[in-house]
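Data availability (excerpt). The following record was deposited with the supplementary files.
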Amino acid sequence: MATFLDVTGLEYFTNIFVFLFVVVVVYATLLWSRILGSNSFVNILVSLLVGIFVLFSPLSISLIASTAPFLAVVFVFIVLINIAAKMLGSGLETMPGFRGGVIMLVIIVLLIGVGIKIKGQYEVEAEQSGQDLSKSFNLLFNPKFLGIILVFAVAVFTVALLSAKG
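Predicted structure:
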């Protein structure tokens, strides 16, 4: 019997939800930090490209699908803290350390999610190949993981250098 609480059919739309989540979060982050300037077209284009690149990797889709609820809770708490601060007469603009704390909290949540997903994926591969990758040292210095970090670093520096005012 189907009820309105039965949401198991939504798992087929996970890719669309992940794409929309990535586009919105990247666009909001670019507007908030003004890394690429205040040009809306550039911000929208970069956020759409990042969303499309995320769709090419099943690992990133599963990672975002599993960490998005935790990030949503963090963002709800940020909104609630902002409302409480405005009710008291100040706001988040008067708390300069709060911005860095929020960024660190989001990075910590993402790193925990990445670690759990990658360790789970490599544990399955280790059982099949007979390797022991349970130690974090082996995980951090795995060639696949280091390759991901290298590609990410090149992408970050490319965007930073292309957006710098000459």
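Summary of structural features: DSSP finds six helices and no strands in the chain.
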